[in-house]
Design a protein that fits this description.
Elements (H helix, E strand, L loop, with lengths): L1 H11 L5 E5 L7 H8 L7 E5 L1 H7 L6 H23 L5 E3 L4 H7 L26 E3 L7 H10 L4 H4 L19 H20 L9 E15 L2 E14 L7 E2 L4 H14 L3 E6 L13
Parallel strand pairs: 1-2, 3-4, 6-8
Antiparallel strand pairs: 5-6, 6-7
């Protein structure tokens, strides 16, 4: 999305209005980091807090495809409302869709392919969309998008940012999404990313890394007491194009540190597991 914004801003200048939608499904400190990154756009950049709406849409929803459809539809409704607020005449919506999104969603140009998952910005869009889509990166892979970002002068901090799906933590919080479960997942994910950064592995070995909150509980022991709490899975992959990926062979000592911190610092978690499945057969995200 950052590269798409930069390209659109170069082409359109003051005609472009950018909206960052805080869905309530963001990683720790995500909103503050994005707002700081795009502060130079001034009045043409607006951060919209729509967290209440998104969380209401997801209440009691556990099916991953339904999550994606509801999130995609809500994004569009928010964009339509904000477009009306800034004035009539907004006809185009710029999206940062990339080719793996199209492939997995069996989007336009890939109708004969099986739908692996409905990406919110492809198959998850509502049929009554009022905008004409502009997707300058639609047929590029992630490594190609990064090359474009570097070529047009975006800082490495943006170009090499850890990928984060549009549905956010909703598809990393397996089962029903609640504010309480999001707090737990957000804290575990922040620990994992911090430890990878401390080990200087984020760019070299962790093309994408995150925590997943599982919809199961396990029995454990803390001190002299029995616990029955939730389980976190860690996912870290190495890839260039995100069409295929291999699980990263992280050092055991690093995994031990991450696990120990999560269990001791995040209330409600008593077990941590590591995903050692490549893509295929698994996808990078769990949902």
């Amino acid at each position: 999305s950052a590269v798409a914004v930069a390209l659109a801003q170069r082409a359109l200048g003051g005609q472009l209005d950018c909206f960052y939608v805080d869905t309530g499904l963001m990683r720790a400190n995500e909103t503050a980091e994005v707002v700081a990154a795009f502060k130079d756009l001034g009045s043409h950049f607006t951060a919209v807090d729509a967290s209440t709406e998104f969380l209401a849409d997801l209440q009691d929803v556990s099916d991953p495809e339904e999550k994606r459809r509801r999130i995609g539809a809500r994004f569009i409704r928010v964009f339509e409302r904000e477009a009306r607020r800034v004035g009539a005449g907004a006809k185009f919506l710029v999206q940062g869709t990339i080719y793996p999104d199209v492939v997995e969603s069996s989007g336009s140009g890939r109708e004969q392919a099986a739908t692996i998952k409905t990406h919110h910005n492809v198959g998850g869009l509502p049929p009554d969309l009022d905008f004409e889509l502009v997707e300058p990166l639609r047929y590029l892979f992630k490594d190609e998008v990064r090359k474009v970002g570097s070529a047009i002068g975006l800082p490495d901090a943006l170009v090499w940012r850890q990928p984060f799906p549009g549905p956010g933590l909703a598809i990393r919080c397996l089962g029903c999404v609640t504010p309480e479960r999001l707090v737990t997942l957000r804290a575990a994910d922040a620990i994992m990313r911090a430890e990878l950064a401390n080990a200087q592995l984020e760019r070299a070995q962790a093309a994408q890394a995150f925590a997943v909150l599982l919809p199961v509980k396990s029995v454990g022991v803390m001190g002299d007491s029995r616990t029955h709490e939730e389980v976190v899975a860690l996912r870290c992959v190495t890839t260039s194009d995100f069409m295929t990926a291999d699980w990263t062979r992280l050092p055991y000592e690093l995994l031990a540190t991450i696990s120990s911190r999560i269990v001791n610092e995040v209330p409600g978690i008593n077990r941590v597991v590591y995903d050692i499945t490549s893509k295929p057969p698994a996808t990078i995200e769990w949902e």
